[in-house]
Amino acid sequence: MRKIVRNLLAGAGVLAVVLPLGGTASYAGGHKVTTPTLTGWASLPAGTFVPGSEPSGALVTGNLNGFTAPFADQPVQGFSGIVDNGDGTFDVLSDNGYGNQANSGDFLLRVQKLAPVFRTGEVDVLGGITLTDPDGKVSWKLTREDRVLTGADFDPESIVRVADGSYWIGEEFGPYLLHFDRAGRLLDAPVPLEGVVAPETAARTGVTATARSSKGFEGLAQSADGRYLYALLEGTVTGDPAGSLRLNEFDLRRGAYTGKRWSYQLDNPDFAIGDAISVSAGRFLIIERDNGQGATAVTKKIYLATARGDRLEKTLVVDLMNVANPRKLGGFGTTFTFPFQTIEDVVILDDRTIAVLNDNNFPFSTGRSATAADNNEWITMALPRSLNVDRRLLK
């Protein structure tokens, strides 16, 4: 019988536990639930940096919520995409830096390797890779002469790993699809999406922008057979109906878009998506959120979106502002909320269990406290109904 490797994270170590395919989810503790229920909580402190790295944040201004810039090292924070390694560790994509192209030229783009330790409520940082372009695949001038990529070059927001171990990353300054090897080296020229131009690319090329800043590829999903990518824009393209987002199919064999496209409709045109991942053919989990945090956070939801013709129909899976927490995990009450401005990571652990992470926009977001920079919180939730995940998508 095929086995799924799942992990019970105890102390600082990772203990692998093998469960039969039809067994109960280890993350759910083997308990059936009638409503989405918190089963794990861990937190990485906001002040977590890559030791022995480079100074960062020289151009950061404003309220830094207790921190002083520049920082002596590179922050580990700002998670905008996640890949399950299947062994209790995860590759997590750092965001572009400090909020915009102008102030992020000394933020080095990285994929961090992390492991949540739910027994202690901590997250172990196990290393990572820095993204580079040593072979000159980017045709325009980069920020650094050594071709190490920074937050002034690209704004990475979504990530998948394909069968050969390489990564595809969706970013927002193009928007582009970027292909990196397992060491973080860019393998191909950035792939644009015809008809969609971000202001950052418009400023560089003189082409008219058709998308708003920071509204590029926020979600990137992979088909179960590994052939296709599905890239979801965060914002509406000029001329499209208000609040409608384009999901575009990309053929990895051909290295080109197929022309197939679906439309995802936001609950409110002012909302945004945070992530999009595959569940099975034509089915996706999508994070949708308002721009509030703390007391102003209202809509933080995860939908199951199903392709119907050229549209995606939505069914609510989890309201992240109303999660049952009978064990009062994390020191919170029996109703758990996830009141962060940007929630940009969802990963399926098994048919009835998902994990979600916030992007803390270090050091700016203040969802837990109005006077302290947010940590990156890592939660797991048991679901009352099976997602019916294609098994090829499970680690």
From TrEMBL:
Pfam hit, one: Phytase-like
SUPFAM superfamilies assigned to the protein according to its UniProt record, in alphabetical order: Calcium-dependent phosphotriesterase (SSF63829)
Top-level lineage group: Bacteria
Ranges where the Phytase-like domain occurs: 74-362
PANTHER family linked: BLR7070 PROTEIN, PHYTASE-LIKE DOMAIN-CONTAINING PROTEIN
Protein name: Esterase-like activity of phytase family protein
Organism, scientific name: Paractinoplanes ovalisporus
